[in-house]
Amino acid sequence: MEWDFLIIGGGIAGASAAAALSSLGSVVLWEAETAFGTHASGRSAALFEESYGLPPVVALNRASRQAHAEASWLTPRGLMLVGLAGQEAAFDADLAGMQMEPLALDAAKARVPILSDAVTRVAWHADAFDLDTDAMIQSGLRAANLAETDRRVEALTPVEGGWLAVAGGAQVTARHVINAAGPWADEIAGLAGVQPLGLRPYRRSMARIAAPGGADVRDWPMMLGVGESWYAKPDAGALIVSPAEEDAHPPADVWADDMVLAEGLARYQEAVTEPVTRPLATWAGLRSFTPDRCLAIGASERDGFWWCAGQGGYGFQTAPAAAAHLADCIAGRASPLDRGVVAALDPGRFR
Ligand SMILES: Cc1cc2nc3c(=O)[nH]c(=O)nc-3n(C[C@H](O)[C@H](O)[C@H](O)COP(=O)(O)OP(=O)(O)OC[C@H]3O[C@@H](n4cnc5c(N)ncnc54)[C@H](O)[C@@H]3O)c2cc1C
Q1: Alpha-carbon torsion 45, 50, 53, 56, what sign?
Q2: In terms of CATH architecture, what is 2-45+133-199+291-350?
Q3: 89 C-alpha to ligand 1 centroid (Å)
Q4: Structure confidence by residue, pLDDT tens digits, 156-201
Q5: How far is the CA of 39 from the centre of ligand 1 (A)?
């Protein structure tokens, strides 16, 4: 075999897998597009929020935290839950789930001066961080022996001791194939004759708007509408605002839906005093979930074919621990994760 590992996909899943596997052997990573991080990984909100996700996801968030901190990928941001009149029950449910503290309205307005009078309840915690997503992807790519763009894998054939992969005019052999193709991961499984997981990609849109009223937004927290109905986050001197929608969409290069975006911006608008003007930019990405919304990390039913998929809305915050778990599975090492978490991540649960 020419390589120990072929990683398919140059988003955060593939890049972090490269970092974790590089100590186990030689790594080649193939990305279909002309740039790494073209799809979901280039379109995220770049937040680390430990309590976000189902319990196995939260366990991965927690297990990733030290690696994020050691790599200096975290910058304090803080998270503010914003509730309007009539949303009290949903506000209380969010408050309990996210381990936040209620915050008095005047204290909330001291942090975010544009909160409107429609806001009746606010909660806050400091324990949320911006992630340096570019640095995360770059550090993973650097760990690969070879990372190539313009390599769309179109055939995977089992050969003695591994796999033969073909992309356009290029081909490689590798002992192991890592399927980190995001929303396309089920299609990659199909090429290998592996049963798909039933991945469900959902579109989420985003608008970048000028800093409201020209304010200096750098130290504002991320604001979250009750029931994840919208969120807004400072981003390079502007605000990114998302309707936080989950609209099913087949694997594709997706674009923001104008109507969904307008409705989401209207929900954000209710909570603030400054009018939303024309967005500076808009985009969307696919958040790809398994049927039970936990990641699928580990072995398939075919030797040497491994899943690293279903990152949903947590691909960056879970990346260090998810990739370490993949490497542990391949190396046959005991996982430091709880047994229940390991079972919840096992792709075999869908077979
Ligand atoms: C709007 C939005 C906000 C988000 N906010 C956050 C957040 O705050 N924090 C967080 O942790 N996560 C967030 N996420 C989720 C996060 O972005 C994803 O979980 C993560 O990017 C998924 O990474 P991935 O590498 O699995 O997928 P992708 O980034 O989609 O990468 C998969 C790659 O595989 C490649 N590929 C596909 N088919 C082939 C083939 N045949 N051959 C070669 N390559 C192929 C694709 O071109 C693609 O580049 C957000 C997502 C969105 C859309």
Answers
A1: positive
A2: 3-Layer(bba) Sandwich (3.50)
A3: 33
A4: 999 999 999 999 899 999 999 999 999 999 999 999 999 999 999 9
A5: 5
